[in-house]
């Protein structure tokens, strides 16, 4: 009989403990929903920034390829050196790829020398040694939810270098490669 009484008291304790815990999850649900919503909002803004950065990089790559091709065409015998034409071509291709939201100013386009051995870009130099164009595309990324924290715009910047190789054939004439994106 005593064992039966002990079993009944254990059973009553377990039932009362279950009754006490029964509503505990209801108090946690609002906290968990807010945390999950906050993470989702952060991921939306970060995803948008990543997409805009990718578009800016594509525009920078297009600008440097167009600029390097224009530079290569000017290096032909009898070609004229026209830096503004190179920069205009780069700006046109940047705008065609990203639209008016990008900013590619003349100061953000540099014409210089790419050294494939050292992986180094040097701005300027003699025209006969120039074989690369560097472009820095800048744009503003409008954020969806970050304005709650006081920031509605994120600055995005992408840098690209387009170059071509110059070698000489057996007659001593310059031979150019197709322009390519370095980085």
Q: List the helices and strands in order.
A: HHHEEEEEEEE
Please state the structural category.
alpha+beta
> What are the low-pLDDT stretches, counting only 5+ consecutive residues below 50?
none
Count of the separate structural domains: 1
**Main beta sheet: strand number and arrangement?**
6 strands, antiparallel
Total strands = 8
The helix content is 40-55%
SS field, number of helical segments = 3
CA-atom Rg in angstroms? 31 Å
How much of the polypeptide forms β-strand, as a percent range?
A: 15-25%
Envelope shape: elongated
Give average pLDDT, whole number.
Answer: 83
Distance between the termini: 85 Å
Quick synopsis:
The chain is built from three helices and eight strands; from the N terminus they run αααββββββββ. By secondary structure, the chain is of the alpha+beta class.
